[in-house]
Amino acid sequence: MTELNELEQIAQAAADAAAPFAATExxxxxxxxxxxxDALEAHADELVPLAMQETGLTEVRLRGELKRTAVQLRLxxxxxxxxxxxxxxxxxxxxEFALGVRPDLRRYHVPVGPVLNFAxxxxxxxxxxxxxxxxxxxxxxxxxxxxxxxxxPELSKATAAVVAEALAEAGMPDGVFQLIxxxxxxxxxxxxxRVKAGSFTGSIYAGRLLADIAAARPEPIxxxxxxxxxxxxxxxxxxxxxxxxxxxxxYVTSVAGSAGQLCTKPxxxxxPVGHGLDDAIAEAAGSWDEHRLLNPRIAASxxxxxxxxxxxxxxxxxxxxxVRIDEDGQGWALPSIYAGSLADVxxxxxxxxxxxxxxxxxxVEYGPDDxxxxxxxxxxxxxxxxxxxxxxxxxxxxxxxxVHTATQRAGRVLFGGWPTGVAVTPAMQHGGPYPATTNDSSxxxxxxxxxxxxxxxxxxxxxxxxxxxxxxxxxxxxVPQARSRAGESLTWGAKADE
Amino acid sequence: MTELNELEQIAQAAADAAAPFAATExxxxxxxxxxxxDALEAHADELVPLAMQETGLTEVRLRGELKRTAVQLRLxxxxxxxxxxxxxxxxxxxxEFALGVRPDLRRYHVPVGPVLNFAxxxxxxxxxxxxxxxxxxxxxxxxxxxxxxxxxPELSKATAAVVAEALAEAGMPDGVFQLIxxxxxxxxxxxxxRVKAGSFTGSIYAGRLLADIAAARPEPIxxxxxxxxxxxxxxxxxxxxxxxxxxxxxYVTSVAGSAGQLCTKPxxxxxPVGHGLDDAIAEAAGSWDEHRLLNPRIAASxxxxxxxxxxxxxxxxxxxxxVRIDEDGQGWALPSIYAGSLADVxxxxxxxxxxxxxxxxxxVEYGPDDxxxxxxxxxxxxxxxxxxxxxxxxxxxxxxxxVHTATQRAGRVLFGGWPTGVAVTPAMQHGGPYPATTNDSSxxxxxxxxxxxxxxxxxxxxxxxxxxxxxxxxxxxxVPQARSRAGESLTWGAKADE
Lengths: 498, 498
Description:
Chain A has helices at 4-22, 26-42, 44-55, 59-81, 132-140, 153-169, 183-190, 204-216, 237-256, 278-286, 296-311, 342-348, 350-353, 372-379, 397-409; strands at 88-91, 105-111, 115-118, 144-148, 177-181, 197-201, 223-226, 233-235, 268-272, 291-292, 316-319, 322-325, 331-334, 336-341, 360-366, 383-389, 410-415, 454-460, 481-484. The first copy, chain A, is α/β, with parallel strands linked by helices and 498 residues long. The first copy, chain A, folds into two domains: 4-227 and 441-455, Aldehyde Dehydrogenase, Chain A, domain 1; 233-415, Aldehyde Dehydrogenase, Chain A, domain 2.
């Protein structure tokens, strides 16, 4: 645990690093991100065993995740190199401006300042110390204070040492990356005026608590929390007829992988009454080996959730799975699949509808008169993803309404496939309406995530010598500069008629 | 006042309009914005006299403001026509993706849904019914519910009728623009789950109250409040020597215009001890005529603020100005300029440092040993603007530190000139650290304001027939589509070394 009396020094070190770090040329920061990526890969043989021990995740998964984390850092480096993320806009002084003389205006984005990231339990690399939020904040030019997750404290320390050393060797200022531990330290720092933004991946309970703290500060700050998502899937009768077997096995794989401890695990799958997939699902589920849950606390919660679902009125068991608690309190789980009618699921309320963090999912059986669209709007929350399994040429009005509804209730809409496995790439959207996230204006995966840690500033009639590099006419960093020319305002409104 | 039992219907009408309005092609929405602009100008002779009567602002000012409002609507139309605001990103499916097969991913921005705008008192056109927040939300494709300001109720009704009629004639759906009145109706609607974002221009007290309501909803929503700003100006000794007289008269004009009831009025001007500008300022202030304050409530607050400043220890009067309350409770004010040492101003605390809404400003006299940078950081809040009046070639380290500090504490940094008069243009930034705004990630003036009312959505492996127009390969709206090609991920990280 970080002692509260250490926090003053940590906050001040981050604040002191903010100005010199913000002033680094994007190319230089990109090289530093590459250096962190290289260092992580170089230390894989030290870090992966630590992660296996502390999380129970498999070596294959963790080596893949470490690679993903490195690739993510390099992608963010690539993203900032050309400076387009700065969104530079230069308005020429304009004596003919439609509303009187316009001054010379130059706008771009600056880093918000120190960012406090709360790491997740379930991705000890990709959503933890050197994960996406850290990569995005560092790419933006913000010092990072990382609140490590209590589920993997030793890995957090070891990873933080690798990150901090790589950044120092790349010439980044002291205080640009610091690790803290403990909930008390995290909430105390979130209230510190030197912290300018927060990010978080975890439970609805903890995330909302922190979001409320951020909003209630004397100076509120943006807080990007990724909380809970049940990731509904809708399978049409045509899809079942075309490829029921493939859907059954893909479903079970998506639920069982990493013991279902993924934010995009499909928690509810709408299937038509009489789908006939029970046997295929049970068989697929039976082929999986026991997988350890991340930690005893998660195991205990999972047991409780599983009992609640299994015991709800009208719910039947398709694949019993099960969970065994060992002498250390660790849980070992097999995929558990339940089923019930849409009416019974809705009637059961929270007992069934709440997210179950672990390899559990519920088939929601709908009849021809059931209102699937209404159910998605009313009972299944805001989500990171909604997935539609349609027949090959299904594109009628009902289908379009389903697509529209999915767009309203999720940040990513999939057609076929399964939502687990989130590609780190420019067009990814990992966010969604509350409670999927506390702030739906951005993403926590993919290059657009950088915008969360930037704020716009405009300079008016500034002498060239006092302008930041990206706004200078000489443009020494050679960033894209969007120019609004003098005289343009006289024809505003004309484009719509062209 | 809008009765609370009418709100159900209003919220539902906005919700019903959301989908058809979101589906309109940008070019069609742009034409609708042009139609609103044309209609406002066509009704100027009806609207301007109403505004004069309800606000006490001058005809010249109000005709200019109405024109600005119309230009603003046309500019937003121009902004959306080409579709670049959608930020379309297409990632090709990629079997060689560094982390395993990448699906086809297509990301763009959709309107957030109904927006509740709280109008300001001081710009009865430009920050009111048809003002910037309305223009930005409509441009984004969001239905608007406009909470009219109690200071100009008849003008609000008349303007709303013009806007609604123009939108209907342009073929926009019913419910796309609605007016409500009364604080109770505004706060009740802000809690309605069908409202998806809020915006506000007004006092710190009311704005923070509303921001807290938005953050405390079961589903929190983004709230863009523009609250308070004292807009510090720093004048160096070199600037006084070069052009003291011009600074004095420019200063008074900026304080006195519109009776100082502007969010960017320079409230505090740091001048070097012994500046010798008292007489020039007093003379300039004496040349102004009495100007009516917006309404009796504002007049009463202004009298109170002015008394507090004038009565604070160590504060002397440079231009007495004054304020006269007539038999209707309306206030008539002349510019009042006070002065005091930095130490005395800081010692007086809130009595002097709080924003005074009206034609009052304070000269803050600093000596060679005073810490102006420290004062800006500690005592003068987050601001919409900070203005620097420098000598012609001043660009030493102290000047650079001043520029850096201004960037930390404001959204717009001016070099010479005065912060009042906010150009509506792509590079404008009208926002800033709290309490200037509750959310510093965007602007409320200029084309970037549209981003406040959009959220990103990604479609994965969607059939062309079910994709929204901007994401289709055929690209029927011909919007810019940024493509990430297959194979690219294999070289991520390389750009920094090029």
